[in-house]
Amino acid sequence: MQTVGIANRRQPGPRGADLRVLVVDDEGATRAGVAALIPVRDDRPCQVLLAANQAQALDLDRRFNPQIIVLDVDLEGHDGLALMPHFLPHARVIVLTSQGGLETRARALALGASAFIDKRDPAAVLAKCLATLADAAD
Do 64 and 47 contact (CB within 8 A), yes or no? Predict the structure, then answer.
């Protein structure tokens, strides 16, 4: 797995295009935790791109065209959901937030999010969602 932003790691594979996952969260520990949950398969290299704010997210999205994006709602006081139109239709977006109110959930899903996950949910919920979307990106 290759991580852009914090460290470079790579899990090489003999075939298939790279899976590119962009993690957008202003909390470094959350970015690292999400990156650790991204499934790595022997047959598919994976690039994990890490963004701490909207500007970094848009830059990495433009340069790497990720298939999956994990997006926080509150990015240093800015509305993370405002980025959704930039990410769709080329990426599947998982909204990950501690602001899991019904209105926010409804807005995220209406904007096209593939999933809405509360940060307080068990990590297995996010891991399963990531695995499902990664398999669908084949």
Answer: yes
Tell me the C-alpha to C-alpha distance, in Å, between residue 46 and each of 22, 84, 86.
11, 22, 22
Question: Taking the C-alpha atoms of 95, 77, 7 and 12 in order, what is their torsion angle to the nearest 10 degrees?
Answer: 20
Residues 57, 51 contacting (CB under 8 angstroms): yes
pLDDT tens track for 6-26: 333 344 433 446 899 999 999
Q: pTM here? A: 0.88
What is the gyration radius of the CA atoms in the chain, in angstroms? Answer: 14
Contact 31, 50 (CB under 8 A): yes
Helix then strand then coil, % of the chain, to nearest 5: 40, 25, 35
